[in-house]
UniProtKB/TrEMBL annotation:
Sorted UniProt keywords: Isomerase
GO biological process: carbohydrate metabolic process
Gene3D superfamilies, sorted: 2.70.98.10
InterPro entries the UniProt entry points to: Aldose_1/G6P_1-epimerase, G6P_1-epimerase, Gal_mutarotase_sf_dom, GH-type_carb-bd
The name this protein goes by in its record: glucose-6-phosphate 1-epimerase
Source organism per UniProt: Phoenix dactylifera (Date palm)
Catalytic activity of the protein: alpha-D-glucose 6-phosphate = beta-D-glucose 6-phosphate
EC number: 5.1.3.15
Molecular-function annotations in GO: carbohydrate binding; glucose-6-phosphate 1-epimerase activity
Phylogenetic classification of the source organism: Eukaryota, Viridiplantae, Streptophyta, Embryophyta, Tracheophyta
Presence of the UniProt keyword Glycoprotein in the record: no
Family the entry assigns: Belongs to the glucose-6-phosphate 1-epimerase family.
Keyword check for Isomerase: yes
Amino acid sequence: MAAGMPSVELCRGINGLDKVVLREAKGCSAEVYLYGGQVTSWKNIYGEELLFVSSKATFKLPKAIRGGIPICFPQFGSHGALELHGFARNRFWSIDTNPPTFPAHSVTKTFVDLILKPSDKDTKIWPHSYEFRLRVALARGGALILTSRIRNTNTDGRPFSFTFAFQTYFSVSDISEVRVEGLETLDYLDNLKEKQRFTEQGDALTFESEVEKIYLSTPMKIAILDHEKKSTFVLLKDGLPDAVVWNPWDKKAKALADFGYDEYKHMLCVEAAAIEKPITLKPGQEWKGTQELSTVPSSYCSGQLDPQKVLQG
């Protein structure tokens, strides 16, 4: 187990792209690429990778990096002139030299502040002025915290609306051994059935085929239980009422050029999002959305872990 002083280091990553490496004193770490403002690695104190990145991810323009935590803004999905999931995930972000103040209780020494502003290219397809600030932080216990702040800086008095998602790719041992707790009995839009609205019937989500659902008005906490690893991811969110669950399964995975043949077995996207009701900001207004990821050990082999203890913890 590695140990030392917390550190934040700017260095070169794949294809010479700039990335920031965060390391906490007990040995957990995270990597954030300035391309996409995208977290591509989150490791625990044992050096185990907790996020999935495809072996075929390209790490080059104009493609978004396949895996980690892409940021979907100013839209989730595909609509109008904007590209799929918007443009934030395949633009170059900058280190933010004048970040907003955070509450004292949230202060951690291991973080990086990034900022994205519109380019001339972007304003042609989405004609608005904004500042998108992102803080990626590692808490002392190893939790990974992403905080987005989006401000309308239009000078012509126009409001704008957007949808948003932290498209988190969790690394799992085997998709058939995974359960998601906290979304049962909720309404969802099924993207595989032309966004028809249904109500979740199962006691928990398990996976046997392709899934792409947008759950509505979800709780603050969602648990992703990996039976084989005997470990549970806890997703805690604020300002993000919806949650997307996605796995392409075999047929769609084969159709994705930047996705490995059998890699769908080892990933699951559970995404904190704001999709059903777009967020509207008047000039000068700011929206904030936060996602905190952590892991807890699951001391079970027979499926008897009480998810409510995780969800209420």
